[in-house]
């Protein structure tokens, strides 16, 4: 069942509501952030703490001839200087990546990207550590770099990974999905085939807070405490145990407040390991915080897919098949964070929201002399790339058929009765009802009027574009039979304890980086057990305090941990019902649940509240036979499928024909993320993601020069959008619950980042239609738009 | 956090004392005004100085906008924000408010100064283009006294000016003439970004004819570019679209942009043309109203 919202814009009138359960309420965590009382990794101060700074490679590809640290060691305040060679002696020079590759902690043989870690200094303060870096003398033998992924597999291309004994070239993996022959057959007989080369350039998550850690190793009890900027504290703890050989129960990973993740804080970075080594060797707590440039040049990037999209259709606009060939640039080490069986993440959903006959994808991934990662940036494991590809190529088809892009999409949607729907690449979409979502977006936009306005403007030589994107995401990884990261299944634990006075504490395995977990999860528990959110403490981020689980990324918190929270609350409620039956002296079957209390059927005057029950559970009175004292439960939730949110986005742009500057005039985003827990938080997630989308579509790109120098090393060079580049967002929603999720929620953290870039690019390309433009690659900076207007659009790489 | 190399810091108590310090410390010392150009470079360790002499305490002495009948005088420590907010300045030279609206962001504008902008001599710097457009004169003071130089003399090259190691830029002077109109336009990839290209135009019109006109461009060459050929072409003529077009063509041909992340050289040339026409059109409209 899909519920459709009345076409109206966001309203905040109900903001001061205090829902016991779902509904709009202000975020519980905000008072501490607004008053400057957040506690981030860099706020952690420990007695005797030292500071660590990392020396990074100035070249993209160079052999290390020698490293002389003597002057640095003699520098005032310096306690320790460590090189790759020293780590190698301890067997710590290399560490596993999240994709079963290895990555250098400190380079021993070669540096393989500009900004790679070469040595570190630990000193009394940040300044002394940084000053000493300048005194380390590294002699390099500069090698030819591989900068262009297209050239990585050419004969004679420099070999990047000569550390791997079985590698003779720069090939990482080949991957395919779908049915090649069946797809070819459909293409061969189709009326219309459109082919377009589409690049999704390398971008960076650029969280406000850079990455960092404070390591505190206690040599007496052998315990390591690590505060770090991590989106996955439990997974990190297990990996540290495996890499560093410290027993897992002696490691406590604490993710304090995190200033934005976006996937950037999923991997384990060399800096974290360096901080641990530094603390072990000095016997003191050691802090490492990277600076802005270090974050931009060395940590997990995103995208970098060079795609050829092909679409086959009938003359009247029935889409028959989609095919794509992808060249994926994975940088110097394959550090992609994705479930092991999914080297290309969930790119397999590139068939989008359309009911088609066949699909096929062939992908090749290569090493280049660029930073590793490819992890995320709010991408739902590469769904960003997949959705961009399909939504762009469908628009190319509309262009070719001279058909309205909205009409083309409406004609090809998977129909509501087809769900659960198995795509031609094997994904089972849980639920969806696409047309009402699309129609709502079109109503909100005033689509027909916009097209009329556009026609008038075109006649006057003005450039106005309307872009549509319709996406289906696959989020909430994932079923443990299919999905693990380095052998760790992607199920999430959750614990709920009700105190005697009826207040509660819920312990989550996932960790918030701004998504508002402390509010959303309190509301989930409140909805299930009737305790007000204000009375529920949400504990997260500390591995000693919380049950195991894989962390927050890929929009998985609500689909996986949210389900765990609902189910653990139901487990507690079941026990509460037993106690209530004893208290009210009726059978369990004679009790009705009325959010917050059990009421005797047919006798509304007889009831006990959850608070009464909690006191009885901990009190001295009798409990029913076989029922233990206390009111608490724990659970580990293994999702049976992913959840598949969808959305319809419409963007309106105006382009100055003289300067080619793009102005995003309006943006309408209708999201269907299933059940809506806190609409305000959902809107916040959407607003942020849309802003991200404007950045990627119009200005962001991590570029390199031919020597492999990173050209995006500061926020002056790597542009991220400000409030002035974005319009007043117009958000709406439909609700199609997930059938397998206990509360029907689907996840929304990345929807807008996934869905907005194609809407914006489609709008720009639509505006340029008078110039015959069918495609132009991001980032659509004024200069690149001007090129497109002159028929000279070029790929950005 | 990016951390600079060690340096010593002293607050200036007067212009002469600051000059004395500069003389004594030589090229190892630098003045810091708003710090919005100098400090980022020091934090990135692109520039290391042993001594910083903070001239912010001299704001009372060097921060002013004086509107006189024949001249406007602006103190070197006048902040972007003060230039933006001065209604008198906007009335005398509308180009200033146009430009200040698109320079950086409020945080930078609260501290950054006219003197710092000019002395930084970044080829993309906006106020240099404004000063070039308005034919400004820079007053430079050293222990031997003051000298006054034109913008052409002031800019020696990218990041290089006529101000010596032991000198201070104290004031910038702008001649006033009747029938004035001026305007500034900038194309940027994002608010607060440095210019892809920007252009300023100023005209002086009497009895329907252009008595004088100047165009200044930023980000299209080694230094902010004033183009005498445009002035020669416009002078003596009645303003017209055809004339703006001619001026635009000269701007495109005379500038020397390079291709970078902000745009291709071709595009920048196109912008030099487009923005020259736009600003001249607006300057003339303003002169007439
Ligand atoms: C994020 C950001 C965005 C920006 N965007 C723009 C933009 O769009 N357009 C633009 O034009 N600018 C921009 N700027 C630069 C900004 O305008 C700077 O403030 C300005 O360029 C320098 O002024 P300042 O007072 O901060 O100089 P400082 O940084 O203090 O000094 C710069 C140089 O000038 C010297 N100096 C300063 N005052 C004097 C003096 N009186 N005599 C002699 N030497 C002196 C200093 O020694 C130093 O070498 C931006 C800066 C930032 C940080």
TrEMBL record, chain A:
Cofactor: Mo-molybdopterin cytosine dinucleotide
Coiled-coil segments on the chain, per record: none
Residues of the Aldehyde oxidase/xanthine dehydrogenase a/b hammerhead domain: 35-144
Taxonomy of the source species: Bacteria, Bacillati, Actinomycetota, Actinomycetes, Micromonosporales
Gene source species: Paractinoplanes toevensis
UniProt keywords, alphabetically: Molybdenum, Oxidoreductase
UniProt-listed SUPFAM superfamilies: CO dehydrogenase molybdoprotein N-domain-like, Molybdenum cofactor-binding domain
Gene3D superfamilies: Aldehyde oxidase/xanthine dehydrogenase, a/b hammerhead, Aldehyde oxidase/xanthine dehydrogenase, molybdopterin binding domain
One term of GO molecular function: anaerobic carbon-monoxide dehydrogenase activity
Pfam families per the UniProt record, alphabetical: Ald_Xan_dh_C, MoCoBD_1, MoCoBD_2
Entry keyword annotation includes Oxidoreductase: yes
Protein's UniProt name: Carbon-monoxide dehydrogenase large subunit
From TrEMBL, chain B:
GO MF, one annotated term: oxidoreductase activity
PROSITE patterns: FAD_PCMH
Protein keywords: FAD, Flavoprotein, Oxidoreductase
Pfam families (UniProt xref): CO_deh_flav_C (PF03450), FAD_binding_5 (PF00941)
Domain spans labelled FAD-binding PCMH-type: 2-179
Record's protein name: Carbon monoxide dehydrogenase medium subunit
Organism of this sequence: Paractinoplanes toevensis
